[in-house]
């Protein structure tokens, strides 16, 4: 399991209907993408849910890194992003845990992301164990469609990403909030549930 996300920051006066129309026209192209657990087509709009920017920021959960490779440099889709917006940096994380939540049967309308750096020099077992506890609690929260925990061992950070049926509850402190325009989940049922090691 592997997670990735890139963010395309757009001008403050950018008409986000352009992105909405783009997703409406192209989102279905990943509905049967081989190796893809899910792709959440996400946007943030300046002034909405506290966002300081307009941004298009899809989040991917890959069941198979071969599919990710094909997408990024094998002619499987990323070229369209590069052609239209330039090549963005792609954040990527090794999958730690994945679980569907109580609202799994609904179409998600929102997403949230919490990125946390581990203390410098710390043994990663402690921070990851604490992040797993948070992830377990999150997975049982009303309104959760799916939640994923992953780690970037280059920068030593955890990311907790959650799809919600609608706006996250008031008690959720995740600073990054998104609107979900479309969810492609062709192989989500093949992504192992729970912690990703014995």
TrEMBL record:
Pfam families: DUF4865 (PF16157). It comes from the Bacteria. This is DUF4865 domain-containing protein. It comes from Actinacidiphila glaucinigra.
């Amino acid at each position: 399991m592997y997670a990735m996300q890139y963010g395309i920051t757009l001008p403050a006066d950018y008409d986000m209907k352009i992105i909405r129309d783009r997703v409406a026209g192209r989102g279905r192209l990943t509905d049967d993408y081989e190796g893809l657990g899910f792709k959440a087509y996400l946007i943030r709009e300046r002034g909405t849910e506290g966002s300081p920017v307009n941004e298009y920021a899809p989040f991917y959960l890959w069941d198979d890194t071969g599919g990710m490779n094909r997408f990024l440099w094998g002619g499987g889709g990323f070229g369209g992003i590069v052609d239209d917006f330039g090549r963005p940096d792609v954040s990527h994380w090794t999958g730690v845990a994945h679980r569907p939540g109580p609202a799994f049967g609904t179409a998600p309308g929102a997403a949230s992301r919490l990125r946390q750096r581990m203390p410098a020099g710390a043994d990663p077992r402690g921070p990851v164990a604490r992040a797993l506890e948070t992830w377990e609690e999150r997975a049982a929260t009303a309104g959760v469609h799916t939640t994923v925990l992953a780690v970037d061992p280059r920068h030593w950070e955890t990311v907790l990403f959650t799809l919600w049926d609608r706006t996250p509850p008031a008690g959720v402190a995740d600073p990054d909030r998104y609107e979900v325009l479309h969810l492609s989940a062709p192989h989500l049922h093949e992504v192992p549930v729970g912690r990703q090691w014995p």
